[in-house]
Amino acid sequence: MSSPKLFSKILVANRGEIACRVMKTARRLGIETVAVHSDVDVQAVHVRMADEAVNIGPAPSNQSYLCIDKILEAIEQTGAEAVHPGYGFLSENSEFSQAVADAGVAFIGPGPKAMDEMGDKIRSMRIAQEAGVSCAPRYDGEVNTVEHALEIAREVGYPIIMKASAGGGGKGMRIAWEESELAEGFQLAREEAMSSFGDSRMLIQNYVCPVFARHIEIQVMGDKHGNYIYLPERECSIQRRHQKVIEEAPSVYIDEDMRKAMGEQAVALARAVGYESAGTVEFLADENKKFYFLEMNTRLQVEHPVTELVSGIDLVEEMIRVAAGEKLSVKQSDININGWAVESRVYAEDSVNYMPSIGLLHKYIEPTSDDQTGLVRVDSGVAEGSEISIYYDPMISKLITYGKDRTHALELMEKALDSYVIKGVEHNIPLLRDVIQQERFRKGNITTKFLEEEYPEGFPGYQLADQQKKELVASAACVHAVQQMAHYDFPEFKDSAPSPDKLVVVLADEEFSVSLNKLEDGSFQVTVNGETLPVQSNWAPGKELFVGTVGGNEVIVQQIEKSGSRHSMRFHGTVFDVAVRRDDDQELYQFMKEPIDTTDMDAVLTPMPGVCVAITVQPGDTVSAGQVVAVVEAMKMQNNMLCPRNGVVKAVHVEVGTKMGAEDILIELEKEEAAESTDLA
Fold this sequence. Notes:
The protein is an alpha+beta fold.
């Protein structure tokens, strides 16, 4: 019997990195691709990569990427034989899956029945329990009011987790540790669920593993012939706002017996719903290695690359072949774990408050590696000149490293993060870089509370050890010296070139006395506070990265910007301001005035562009520091806007539905003097 014919043309109903990822496999298989795009994505990378592209509407996703009828029109217009939904958007929408099938086109994913049953968190819990999957205590039904939620929480027991029944990706999810936290959390979760999924139904269950929890997930694959496999687990415990940040495969926590038990339960669940294609069963594991079912994601996961690298299986290819009617290419007995893979999600957001950042990528260079025994992979949908906009998820890329073991993979990740050049937006590389070099992370001692436990006051930036300070100071001095020599690299100026051999370098208000000497081979001998460090690097003006050795240690220092004698440099992920001056110039800087703090305590400003979805105060109201005065939605997440101090509301400058830019005024407070006068009156 001949094998089913693969498709000649696939439409990818998504954007960004996942659209590009699907297209790469399709291209390798000789399949043409069709991109769909909104108005603002007309020049996007996924559009340029595709063989054809169709504009499906304005920027807001509910007017473009979430419009089933527009996707169907694009399918008919281009003659696509199959549709890959990627993840997010319509990827877990059973109505879309059914509509594609009704149009006589293959859906590269599970059927609508399995999607419906697993996509509804309430129903999926019932099915999982019946299939013999370990589940947490819960309320078996939907919860629609705060009053009902309070009643259920008292029965189930705190802490509880409230999740959107139709949700995923951490959206529409809140934890209440005690009753006082329930009302606000429930309301925010419902609003976020409605905004993200068009469905406000909520599931409430006991929050198992409140002290120790590891987020472990199992990749499953099924075909149309009743065959199922599970692949090596993924560890996804490093999270912020219930969204994964760093993932790896396999997990240091899982032994062979636990892996087999989790895998077999995951397959039992897939079999119970007749699952076809790639899916992921997520679990929480406690300190005793007991695990509990969370949910099944009926789509390709963001973190699928780590599974591909340790298993050697292209999951997108398997999905395409299964949709075309082929059997799975491997059996369970064929699955092995080879090496270790780590993925860092690179987001356009600050590393302290996780606030999204938008802007133009005016400089963008992805890292590579010449390590013959490992691999650096970047799954992205951006390029230099791309715009990170308010309308979509702020993820820039997925940075994946693969090595012979975990240590090797993490070493490659360190170098890759240090070499990743992203300018134009804030990003979370400082946090990612700090996490993977922490001793606790290196030992594999991680839980879902890792970030809040390690950074209880927020991420402070990497704290340099004394020797690392000297490495950065020596690197900055060499950069300064090479720049100075380049300025005078003309015959008529050579004799007047200033000598850069005696310098003062200021790092974090600490002064370092530096002298340097350039040797015949182009290297430098740099003395920092009396310690001589040989420095070797081929750095030249215009290069983004100073790569070399300082005192025998490998260093990668990224040049962010330069203003006068001040250099902004990224080292170990964090940006440091380094001033490099001649020793006589440094004496003059003591007369420079300190900059004035202009923080506005009389207004609540939007930290990022977004849409106002709630105002909780009005003019004349008395407010207190930390009180929620408004809610702003940006990049599909709802953010509470907090009052900066005690006071009285003078004016409300927006209304629900108002679109705002960064640092627009939401709420204005009476000046403190005026508020005092009002109280006296």
